Amino acid sequence: MSSHLVQPRADEVAQHCEALCRQLHETLLGEGKSRAWQPKCEVMLHPSRPSYMRAVGSGGTQTIGSSAIRIQSGKVLHRRIDLLAEDRSRALSALRHEMIHVLFAELFPEAAPPRWAEEGLALLHDSDDKRARHLNDLRQALETKTTIPLTRLFATADYPTGWQRAVFYGQSMSVVEYLTQLDASDEFLRFVKLCTETGHESALRTVYEIDSLDDFEHGWRQHILASLASKS
Prior knowledge:
With about 230 residues, the chain is mainly alpha-helical. The chain has helices spanning about 10-30, 50-55, 90-105, 115-125, 130-145, 150-155, 165-180, 185-200, 200-210, 215-230; strands at about 40-45, 65-70, 75-85. Helix content is about 60%, strand content about 10%. The longest helix has 20 residues, at about 10-30. It starts with 9 loop residues before the first helix and ends with a helix.
């Protein structure tokens, strides 16, 4: 490990977790304070990559944060976040992303939310440089006409593999950003909940007064192209 890297202290991470919970409950749910989680969320700090990978598995080769939630019969039984804590700044940044996953498990204990919605919102809470990399992947997909049709993106139950994985991340992040700009964040969560109950098209009509997925895709493409042009 490089000598200039500073590891976060355990008490600092705990305080950061509490502050994040309050902030996310306020911005996403419109609630003045966070709910008490039972059981509490464990946060494990790993001083090295080998230690981190022993905890999270081979998928930890390219990540610095991972969340694990166990749900049974609509009740959350276990919450845990593992962080690679070699670098204080990166670890605290990853914590925000993983807290979104933990929060979604609390909000959707009965039926898993759409993968693109949960991951897209988590990606929006990443650092500026990570968001820029995902946006660049989306830019390339738009230029090569290899974006994922929204009918398929919205129906995706798990992460794609191969080259589509990078597109999935960038596109999910952008779609969630567009939705959260259309209305308040708590309306986005209402939309996600309705998606699990009545389907995407019905949810779009109910929450955003958008008649069809085709109309939504047209609006989203105009939004992202204008956004990318402004950053050129």
